[in-house]
Specification:
This is Sigma-70 family RNA polymerase sigma factor. Interacts transiently with the RNA polymerase catalytic core formed by RpoA, RpoB, RpoC and RpoZ (2 alpha, 1 beta, 1 beta' and 1 omega subunit) to form the RNA polymerase holoenzyme that can initiate transcription. Belongs to the sigma-70 factor family. ECF subfamily. By secondary structure, the chain is an alpha+beta fold. It has two domains: 161 residues, Butyryl-CoA Dehydrogenase, subunit A, domain 3 (Up-down Bundle), CATH 1.20.140; 114 residues, Nuclear Transport Factor 2, Chain: A (Roll). The protein has twelve helices and seven strands. The chain has a seven-stranded mixed beta sheet with strand order 1-4-5-6-7-2-3. The radius of gyration is 20 Å and the shape is elongated.
Amino acid sequence: MDVVEEHRPHLLAVAYRLTGSRADAEDAVQDAWLRWDRLGADGQGAVRDVRAWLATTVSRLCLDRVRSAPARRERYVGPWLPEPLVTTGPDDVFDAVAAREDVRMAALLVLEHLSPDQRVAFVLHDGAGVGFDDVADVLGCTTTTARQHASRARRAVAAATAAGALPDPVPAAEQRRVLDAFLAALAEGDVPALVAVLHPDAELRTDGGGIVKAARRVVRGADRVARLLVALAEETGPELLAAVRPVTVNGEVGMLLPASPPMVGVLTVADGRAVGVHVVMTPEKLRA
C-alpha cells in the first residue's frame, strides 16, 4: 500500500480529470491498489515504472465510465459540472490534487468537449507522462492512433484557450477581489454593479441535475447572467447570502452557500472579471 500512497495524489488527479467525480476517482485508485497487491512480490518487482503502471491501471478502470459519459450527458437534465473539490486543508486527501492548474473548473469543462479516447490520451500522455505505447494499450488501438488522439486533443485545448474558454490562472488575491465584488453586488441586488463584475461574454452554469431547481441551459452574456442571479438571490433571501463563506473549490477561491440543499460556486476570472460562474447544486455531488 505504501507504493500506492506515495503516488495517490497523482493517481487521484488522473482519475478525477477523466471522470469529473471525486467518488469515482477514489474507487479507481482503491481498485488499482488491489490489482497491484494481487501482483505479489515477483510481479511487482517486474514492473519497470510503477507510477506509469498505476496510472494506466487507473485509466483502464475509468475507461468504461469515460466512454459512456457522452450518452449520460445527453440524458442529464441541464448543464453538467464536475463534482467540486471543496478542500479543507492539508489533511484532505484531495488537497494536493486541487492545487493543480489542470483540475480547475474551466479546464475540466474543456476536457468535456473532447472525445473519450482523446481525453484519455491527453490526460495520460500530456498530464501523466505515460508513453504512447502504454496509452495505446489502454485504448486498444495502435501507437500511431494514440498519438493522433493526443494531438487532436492538444489542438482542441489550444483552441479553447485562444477563444477564452480556458484563461490563465490568476492569483488568489485577484480571485478573492472579484468574488467579494460579485457577492456585494448580489447582496445589494444591484444589476449594473454585477454586470461590471462580469465579463461581457460571461457564462452561468447551474448544475441541478433535474433534482434541484436550476437553469436548464447555459446562460450567456453579462446582462442576462446578472439579472438571473439577482432574481435568484432575491428569491433566496438576504439571510442565505449573509451566510455565504469562502472555500477553496478545485484550487480556486469559491463560495459555499449553506442552503438546503447546499450550493457550491466558483468563478473563472479573466482580465479582472468573472468570465464563468459555475454553481453545483446536485445533492449527490456535494456529499463529500
